[in-house]
Amino acid sequence: MARGRAKAKQARGGGLVEVPGLLGLHVADAFAAGLRAGLVVKVIEPEPEDRPVLRQRPAPGTFVERGSEVVAWTTGPGDGLVPA
User: Edge-to-edge, what's the strand order for the sheet holding 69-74?
Assistant: First the structure.
């Protein structure tokens, strides 16, 4: 029975996908990379498209369910963020 449900979930587009590395990508490119992987990228302020991603969660190479959220942080004047 569980096997049938797993197959049905895969048929609907579920399953595990690998989180891409977003570090160093500009915001627009990070959104595109997440979309290609089947994930949703949420950028924490500030998010001008010309700023690079400094941190992300979950880490690159992690496997998560398709459609999961990847949180990214960008640089900003005086924001004090450093890569994790």
Answer: 40-44, 69-74, 53-57
